Amino acid sequence: MNAKRQLHLTVLGSGSWGSVLADVLAKNGHAVTIYGRNPQEIAEINEHHTNTHYIANLHMDESIAATTDLRQAVTGAAAIFFVIPTQAIRSVAEKVGAILNEEGNRPFLISAAKGLEEGSLDRISQVLSQSIPAAVRGDIVILSGPSHAEDVAKRDITTLTAASANDDAAAWVQWIVMNDFMRIYTSPDVVGVELGGAIKNVIAIGAGAIHGLGYGDNTKAALMTRGLAEMARLGVAFGADPLTFSGLSGLGDLIVTCTSTNSRNWRCGNRLGQGEPLQHILDTMGMVVEGVPTAKAAHDLSSQAQVDMPICEAIYEVLYRQRPLQDSIDALMGRIAKPEIDF
Ligand SMILES: NC(=O)C1=CN([C@@H]2O[C@H](COP(=O)(O)OP(=O)(O)OC[C@H]3O[C@@H](n4cnc5c(N)ncnc54)[C@H](OP(=O)(O)O)[C@@H]3O)[C@@H](O)[C@H]2O)C=CC1
Ligand SMILES: O=C(CO)COP(=O)(O)O
User: Fold this and answer.
1) Same domain flag for 234 and 134
2) Do 181 and 244 belong together in one domain?
3) Does the keyword Kinase apply (predicted)?
4) Helix-helix angle 86-103:291-305, to 10 degrees
5) 148 lies in the same domain as 241
6) CB-CB contact of 60 with 49 (8 Å)
7) Is 301 helix (H, G, I), strand (E, B) or coil?
8) For 197-228, what is each residue's pLDDT tens digit?
9) Which of 202, 205, 222, 270 could form a disulfide with 212 if both were Cys (CB 3.0 to 4.6 A apart)?
């Protein structure tokens, strides 16, 4: 235990990533509380230090306290990690904001989720800043990058980016998370880091789909590279640094998500490619597939901003307009010839 770093940290979300992140933070010497809404899951973490539905073969640090009581989880925390599906963040954050208003601690807010909110089309940092007034919180930091929970649980060497408008806040998160197998870099580019993390999930559905259809490595490389061009194009339209997309939260996460069977987004796409209906896939996945709602939000956002995102659009049409996959691929291949670099 590293007493020098002992802080009270709270992780909201007792799913795959929440459980593993809580374990990493506890092993780093912090006093960690994990909040979840499922009493059985919370009891399993407290009594057996496992969370078998979400993450096999992880014996969580025994110092972790799990609770279904949001007030208990949030009160006194130096930082609150949001590790729940993007579409649930606003409702949970509003409750957190009300509690912080009464309790008076001003924690840093750290988003470890990846997606865009449907309807508002907001990034998670925007959702958090709208839901929790600045007067009752510290800075907002985005923690993103190639990090399948299953691999982090096995202590695979993992690199992430901590992005914040405040360099000191990003450096603080770097300090509390970093250890001998987690290396954290900082970035001031919140927009770029968030959009990379959100859009890679949409592209990963495409990568799974082409695998399910029987396409090979050339097609996968084409999809990933042109998908990267799309996320950078969207990011630049919203003020991101294009170089951010060559980093961990862009290219790095695109690689891990498009090439790993650990990815829920890839698995969803693969099953679509094999002909399974989307609703059945979502009903049986047992975990969140962020790329599905984000494909809709990305469709709306790129239409509003008039950014050309043909691969994301093709995936949106497959998911939401029942367009046959092969038909979408044929349409992509039939697009007008153009230069490779065309921001
Ligand atoms: N898994 C991974 O490897 C990684 C995931 N992420 C991101 O982290 C976020 C969470 O993913 P992950 O942990 O994998 O998801 P999981 O599906 O594994 O778990 C989601 C967790 O969120 C909880 N939850 C869902 N809705 C609510 C709600 N309304 N209120 C409170 N809790 C809720 C679920 O509770 P319940 O069990 O009751 O449904 C569950 O504990 C996503 O944005 C994902 O993209 C980022 C990096 C790595
Ligand atoms: O973001 C992730 C890895 O970095 C997890 O991706 P999936 O949600 O597709 O499993």
Assistant:
1) no
2) no
3) no
4) 90
5) no
6) yes
7) helix
8) 999 999 999 999 999 999 999 999 999 999 99
9) 270
